[in-house]
Write a structure and sequence with these properties.
It is built from ten helices and 26 strands. By secondary structure, the protein is of the alpha+beta class.
């Protein structure tokens, strides 16, 4: 058993009821304050724990982890230690934060390395080298296909045979709290008419999650489905902002481009696969049976409850979507195995996003495109307005958590406010 996962553990740090960050979570991130350079941290209750300070005081020396990795502006070097190294650090943190700790005075410890989360700035947790976006929700693919091709041809012929994906733009991935500028581009306002240029009129969110690659591979080699999970360090929330009108005009024949590359928002905390282990579940039945290199045995998905809130400028917010990661047809191991089967190499810190996570009911659809059904069913808001797509001033907030046996493991938030085009 992984020490930090023990549901009986309690911390001497107060953890409010319903917090995303009990001692059983201990995710990893990067923070700074006006007086501190960027460095690694974990979350516990309402606090962040400064791992650089703990390292400087020798708390990790016996684990064989170099002190310098905790003083970096990204998690990449820490992740590159491998799961044995990162697991040892997480277990040590559980020891230090354990309420049964008798060797230290809690108030004395707190003064060394704890900061209120509200008083620090959370930064991009990883330096993203490459980013891939999959299209792994059958419900989402069916909904979108039905809108544009009709119900009989909703899924493309390849969809049930492989995890469809495309390579996205890593440079425009931003951390939660970063505003998102409404993009401009070409679009066709009415079928048969020539394109026009201007700000997107159909700005959308996409409820996704992403996993962080934890090991490098060599070009020309592939990762088997049996080994794929060894290459996944952890997960975070992911909003793949989309300009539907720009995307519709540009995507044939090569796929998304400017309609996607203007911004993607991630949560600042990477929740380890170790912390998520108790929440494993089986994914949907796959028929036809995938080719052998994609055949997965066991419970390859996770019961992660997800929601999206739209908060208007100076208005009351509304939860417009409640979905679950377990709905995804293709799991992460299958995505990674397929990604590398042609010999494509991976690097620590690469991100692979799930694609929009839609469920079987209209309130679980993971995008405005689906929720409003191309604008035909506007969503009423508490202030009397409605939404077909996102308006300037709207803040979109993604949240996610797992709950079982009295333990809640959360991801925090991935939020971004829409700013007008310039």
């Amino acid at each position: 058993m992984i020490r930090a996962n023990d549901p009986k553990l309690r911390s001497w740090v107060e953890v409010p009821h319903g917090s995303d960050f009990p001692i059983q979570n201990l995710p990893f991130g990067v923070f700074r304050t006006p007086g501190l350079t960027p460095r690694l941290c974990t979350a516990i209750g309402r606090y962040v724990a400064d791992l650089q300070v703990l390292a400087e005081h020798g708390f990790f020396d016996d684990l064989g982890v170099p002190r310098y990795v905790f003083a970096q502006p990204y998690l990449n070097d820490f992740i590159a230690l491998g799961k044995d190294g990162t697991r040892a650090v997480r277990n040590r943190l559980a020891d230090l934060l354990d309420d049964d700790l008798e060797d230290w005075d809690a108030s004395e410890l707190a003064g060394y390395f704890l900061h209120l989360r509200d008083e620090v700035q959370m930064l991009m947790p990883i330096k993203v080298g490459d980013y891939t976006d999959f299209y792994s929700s059958r419900e989402h693919a069916t909904n979108v296909g039905t809108m544009f091709r009709g119900k009989e041809n909703a899924l493309m012929p390849n969809w049930l045979h492989l995890p469809v994906g495309y390579h996205g733009r890593a440079s425009s991935i931003v951390v939660s709290g970063t505003p998102v500028r409404r993009p401009k581009g070409q679009m066709v306002l009415k079928d048969g008419e020539p394109p026009v240029f201007g700000p997107s009129r159909l700005l959308d969110f996409e409820l996704e999650m992403a996993f962080v690659v934890g090991r490098d591979t060599q070009l020309g080699t592939s990762v088997s489905i049996a080994d794929a999970e060894d290459y996944i360090f952890g997960m975070l929330l992911f909003n793949d902002w989309s300009a539907r009108d720009i995307q519709k005009w540009e995507y044939v024949p090569l796929g998304p481009f400017l309609g996607k590359s203007f911004a993607s928002t991630i949560s600042p905390w990477v929740v380890t696969m170790d912390a998520l282990e108790p929440f494993r579940v089986e994914g949907p039945e796959q028929a036809p049976r995938p080719l052998p290199y994609l055949q997965y045995e066991g419970s390859g998905s996770f019961d992660i409850q997800l929601e999206v809130e739209i908060l208007p400028d100076n208005g009351k917010g509304k939860t417009v979507c409640q979905s679950n990661f377990r709905y995804l047809y293709w799991n992460m191991a299958q995505q990674l195995a397929h990604h590398t089967v042609n010999g494509c190499n991976l690097r620590v810190g690469d991100l692979m996003a799930s694609g929009t996570i839609s469920g079987p009911t209209p309130d679980s659809y993971g995008s405005m495109l689906e929720l409003s059904w191309r604008g035909e069913k506007p969503i009423p808001m508490p202030d009397g307005s409605d939404r077909k797509f996102l308006l300037d001033g709207d803040t979109v907030i993604l949240r996610g958590c797992c709950e079982k046996n009295g333990v809640r493991i959360g991801f925090g938030e991935a939020s971004g406010k829409v700013l007008p085009a310039v």
